[in-house]
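Format notes (please read before filing issues)

Several people have asked whether sequences and structure tokens are stored in separate files. They are not. Every record keeps both together, in the order shown below: the sequence lines, then the token lines. Line labels are part of the format and must not be stripped during preprocessing.
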Amino acid sequence: MSRKDKPALSPRKQAYRELADRLAPERNGWIDRNAFYYEDHWRYLRFLVGEERSVLDLGCGTGRLLKALSPVRGVGVDLSDEMVRIARENYPGLTFHQGDIEDPNFMKTLKGPFDVIVLSDTIGFLEDCETTLAGLQTLCTRDTRIILSYYSKAWEPVLKLAEVLGLKIPQKEQNWLTAKDLEGLLNLADFDVVKKEWRQLIPKPLLGLGRLINCSLGVLPGVRRLCLRNYLVARSMNYAEQPGLSATVLIPCRNERGNIEAAVQRLPRFCDDLEILFVEGGSEDGTWREIERVIEAYPDLDIKAAQQDGSGKGDAVRKGFAQARGEALMILDADLTVPPEDIPKFYHALVSGKGEFINGTRLVYPMENQAMRTLNYIANHLFSLAFSWLLNQRFTDTLCGTKVLSKANYNKIAAGRDYFGDFDPFGDFDLIFGATKQNLKVVELPIRYADRTYGETQISRFRHGLLLVRMVVFAFRKLKTI
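Then the structure lines:
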């Protein structure tokens, strides 16, 4: 589309473009002068975006952010001709377009979809944020993530003063929107927020103390709301539903002979294509023989079994999910303290699009008297508060064994497992941390926790409690001190 074919810009946008064209030759110099601020910003965006992604950067400037994200396919758009000219010269391996992202005809010329669409300090310069966000739907799939990065409104006077003092690149007046404002606009545009974060309490190095302050004080509850940078990650609701998925119910089991047949009998046939997969972990009570008997006794059902090579529930889950054939992957603990009758609720929460990672919680409804010991109950609540803060997601129960996600999303978690490593003997945190890293929509589903009727718990309060403390420290290091 040639310049003469494009709709005329409003006086406000024309002023923005003229200023950007004039400042374009200085842009990279301003970035270098404030390298601490930009490197922290780009580092966190790399964490959010991930690797091997196609990225659309709206408001790309001279292209340095897009380059820093290392996309497999990178497309940048900016209103300024001069910004785009410099970006093209510096990064010929990326694609840059000059255009108005509020012009729907221009947006149709972009060849989507994209894995990630980034608007970094762009939302403040739009004239109609809701309509512009809604227009991004045509560039999305179910898996696309929209990342909005913007200045906190609380910093408005500080940033204006920085401009006056020549410490910040000059800008025209912008929209100063709060997180609530943006959540509302995204909701109106049929996007669902899956993650929020606050970063950079100190945007300067301060003789080497800036990063230490940001990674310690700057992440604390309450204090973090004072940070300069706000981030929102959202997904499209227009593509969220996944009707008719086949399912695999994975049942890890060790010394659970008395529960094997009950699990099969009580599990509803909630979808047309259901696989039941037992993964047995070196039982001493004849559990494996019972699984073989049950498979023979129910030839009309698709029941399979495997034996662990390693040990622990985490190993069982990884082995089972690797060979599961269902499109929806579901965990049901063999102790049946989570009623098998509740499994269809998890399935429907996934296929309806209400969530992409469905986590059971035992701590909402009252539970049977002996279902959880008092010390365990208190510890679970404390750890849930800690993990809710660490993950920026509400988790009332991190250790409920029932977790559900699509196989496609599990494969993404498995492919990105190197970031966290083989750290989790439970299996719960491997999935929770992975879902957070992949920006999946987490939904908690309350269940009524029942007493165990056969066998004994395989959880040691103190040994596994210490492991949970280690998980908190691990999560802090990998998710907060980025």
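For reference, the curators noted about this record: The mean pLDDT is 91. The domain at 3-236 is CATH 3.40.50.150 (Rossmann fold).
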